[in-house]
Amino acid sequence: MKKLNLPFGFLLTFILALVNFSIQYTKLSFIDWKELPFGMLAGILSWILHNALMLYKEELGFKTNSGLLGLMSILAVAFVLFIFEWSYWFVLPISMQLEHLEGWRKCVSVLRHSITLSSLYYFICRHINVLKDTQQHLLEIGKLKEAQLEANLSSLKEQLSPHFLFNTLNTLSTLTTEKTVKDYVAQLANVYRYVLKNKTNNTTTLSKELEFAKAYLYIMQIRYDEALTVNIDVDEKFGQTQIAPFSLQLLIENAMKHNIASLSKPLHILLFNIGDEYIVVQNNLQEKNTSSNSTGIGLNNIMERYKYLFQREVVIEKDLNLFKVKLPIVHL
After folding, report:
1. Residue 161 predicted with pLDDT over 80
2. What pLDDT was estimated at residue 298?
3. Do 228 and 115 lie in a common domain?
4. Same domain assignment for residues 126 and 211
5. Around 278, how many Cα atoms within 13 Å sit in the side-chain half-sphere?
């Protein structure tokens, strides 16, 4: 829930009131304590209004803290303060600063004071909000780096020397003449090549992610044989859209980890797009009775990365027969 941080607003208003009365004492050699209630009320009112406008700027049609938003905020709050101040002094006409003014001069003085107070509180509120946004951004970057690291570890759990292993696989491919073995080694090398290239990347293209997923699936299908069937039907026009690296592989791995895959109960995995909205990873639901050891990485990892990278939500759908994960198609 969005908060206006009223305690800080009261403290700020009290400090500004003290500064104002110190200046007043320097000029007039006395303090008009009758103005204290007005000063406190006007300050709190300014704080609440400016914070509310900033917190709900998107609902008002402003995407960022633009100059137009600032100008409108200052003028809108100044108008409210003008009405408030004029009403206050009309009920209690005791201000030493206004008693010598009449007519339009008093009106101009009140208006000038309202705009000054509104501007002061706007820039204080904006500065505080910028600091909060910066801090939040740094926290999100930290979480994203952590999630990306976990995804890398999940995709390549044994990385004692990945470069050495990758080079060894290429050498092994030259030592055999059997096509099946050469294809297997080539696909395994493709998996490691992708991991090495994307272990520090936050995003990649869908076409590259699909190539990685196909290489990973080739290896898994050699292992599972007819117990695993896979169908990929993704429109090529989405090849340059963005995706979080290892997303498809993690979803495929989760499907195999948590579901039975046998000759009597084959596991069917489908990858397809729904229009230009989602890439879907779907499998028939036949959950294992005992859950396998979890690495702690999976759906939560993918959901967090999509939230931090693209500000998009991953959709999960489950019924008695199917389990679907919908990854938003991201055009950049």
Report:
1. no
2. 73
3. no
4. no
5. 15
Nearest to 13 by CA among 133, 131, 120: 120
Residue 164 lies in a domain: no
* Domain count within the chain: 2
The answer to whether residue 153 is domain-embedded is no
Domain that holds residue 248: 201-328
SS3 for the chain is CCCCCHHHHHHHHHHHHHHHHHHHHHHHCCCCHHHHHHHHHHHHHHHHHHHHHHHCCCCCCCCCCCHHHHHHHHHHHHHHHHHHHHHHHHHCCCCCCCCCCCHHHHHHHHHHHHHHHHHHHHHHHHHHHHHHHHHHHHHHHHHHHHHHHHHHHHHCCCCCCHHHHHHHHHHHHHCCCCHHHHHHHHHHHHHHHHHHHHCCCCCEEHHHHHHHHHHHHHHHHHHHHHHEEEEEECCHHHCCCEECCCHHHHHHHHHHHHECCCCCCCEEEEEEEECCCEEEEEEECCECCCCCCCCCCCHHHHHHHHHHHHCCCCEEEECCCEEEEEEECECC
Average pLDDT of the residues in 146-170:
58
Q: Give the end of a domain, one of 104, 139, 174.
A: 139
Confidence at residue 35, expressed as pLDDT on a 0 to 100 scale? 61
How many angstroms separate the CA atoms of 32 and 50, rounded? 27
- pLDDT category at 160 given cuts 50, 70, 90 is very low
What mean pLDDT, rounded, does the chain reach? Answer: 76
State how far the Cα of 226 lies from the Cα of 213, in Å rounded to an integer: 18
In-domain check, residue 104: yes
Of 213, 188, 208, which Cα lies nearest the Cα of 198? Answer: 208
Q: Which of 93, 118, 139 is the last residue of a domain?
A: 139
What is the pTM assigned to this prediction? 0.52
| 16 and 106 in a common domain | yes
Q: Which residue has the tokens 């084959």?
A: 266
Q: Is residue 180 one of the residues assigned to a domain? A: no
